[in-house]
Amino acid sequence: xxSWDFTFKILPQLLDTLWITxxxxxxxxxxxxxxxxILAFARRSTFRLLSWVTYAFIEFIRTTPPLVQLYxxxxxLPRYGLSLSPFTAGVIGLGIHxxxxxxxxxxxxxxxxxxxxxEAATALNFSPLQKWKTIILPQAIRPVVPVMGNYLIVMLKxxxxxxxxxxxxxxxxxxIIGSNTFRYLEPITLVGLxxxxxxxxxxxxxxxxxxxxxxxxHGKMDAAA
Amino acid sequence: xxxxxxxxxxxxxxxxxxRVSEMTENxxxxxxxxxxxxxxxxxxxxxxxxVSKSFGDNQVLKEVDFDLYxxxxxxxxxxxxxxxxxxxxxxxxxxxxxxGTIEVDGRQLWHKEVKGKLVPADEKHLHExxxxxxxxxxHFHLFPHMNILxxxxxxPIKVLGLSKEEAEERAKTMLDKVGMSDKLEAYxxxxxxxxxxxxxIARALVMRPKVMLFDExxxxxxxxxxxxxxxxxxxxxxxxxxxxxxxxxEMSFAxxxxxxxxxxxxxxxxxxxxxxxxxxxxxxDRLQEFLKRFELNGSSS
Lengths: 225, 301
Known about the structure:
Chain A: Its main location: membrane. Chain A: It is a multi-pass membrane protein. Chain A: Belongs to the binding-protein-dependent transport system permease family. The complex is a heterodimer. Chain A contains nine helices and no strands. Chain A has helices spanning 4-44, 48-63, 66-76, 86-111, 115-123, 128-141, 145-158, 170-181, 185-218. The radius of gyration of chain A is 21 Å and the shape is flat. Chain B is α/β, with parallel strands linked by helices. Chain B has a domain at 2-119 and 249-297: Rossmann fold, CATH 3.40.50.300. In chain B, the strands form three sheets. In chain B, strands 8-9-10-3-11-12 form a six-stranded mixed beta sheet, sandwiched between helices. Chain B has a four-stranded antiparallel beta sheet with strand order 2-1-4-5, covered by helices on one side. The radius of gyration of chain B is 19 Å and the shape is globular. The model of chain B is unreliable at 1-39 (pLDDT under 50). At the A-B interface, α5, α6 and α9 of A face α3, β8, α4 and α6 of B.
């Protein structure tokens, strides 16, 4: 049933799209990280209206399917003069969707920094910006690195959704091969394997990062700062 | 100079305590007012005027007047919940007073003077005035993600704008002073409480404040570690450069180090005076009662 000849024939085609999957994941994750931080700050704002609007936005995005949001960005926005390439639309759509989740992660991290750290920073006369940059965020992000890593992997596995807005990534390419040759076993299996390898390497990376930070944090060795 | 200043403070205090005794005799609530300073040459570095603070329904400070003079070392004693920690936290701008004013070196702290009127201060104004104040906390609050050298040098770099070399040089000098110069690369989690507190003292000193606040600096320490921290504070106090406000339950330490003792209870200054007088001849019933409790606990003279 399994044909090695066919496998090797389609491998280059799939490898071509591998890069698209990886770059879409990384770009969308970057959008989610930055967007999440902005949302977390807006949510904490003492300006009530901003905080409330942010809350409503986060709830709205989280309770509607990402696929619907992608359709809106890719198919509806052009009607109002905003045409985006499939890649850009996908990165923005996925990035914004997950930024709402990451904003909650940031929030948990920020809340976990003890009050005394804020007070010590105030006593040393740090400006609000320096307080965030130097004292609070480095401590807030450390404990939530594993959760963020999980979202990176979840987002990687969500990228096949982008084929719905005509971005040909791994799974999209496999489907095209399948419909052209009526052979699905090899392309779909290969896609599964690719995702396995990508997810696994991403999780190893996160674990390494986490370990490095912990070593540094508890000062058990002289790790590079 | 130092001698002179102490005499002056002593003189002021005796005036203040006469008032207290008069009032007690008349069966009034004994409230010692802060010594009046108008006719003195040296202006107070810190001046509290009618400062009140409430948390919800709980009024923890009640129209407190209090002056601290340059170089003066004041120990603040009193039962827990008496408002003494809040006094320090208001000055460090960690809490905002409900009413009243605080002046630091002639400048309003919580207010800005705009066209002769006092308006609430913004962060920029607080930032300008707060630089004169430093604070050491009960629970140290070192930055856990930075090593010791970084803990002490980060604020001089970021806040004072010193170069890294200059800041580290200063930090090392301070760490040497508190006996922690052999732990520059260590992280706070690997230090004992006493060591952490000594680093915290260096971290506050390195900013060269005019006023240092110590908020129960040894209350969170194991008994065997208290001594090393008190020794460091005594050493700093002996230099006599900064005004110091020491909130403490260590009575013998307060007696040894302070020029003046201020006794707080229920949000007011009940009695104040020189250590000899406060500890050997307390005038108010409440102070007598408070000191008796310490003798029973055996934690003081």
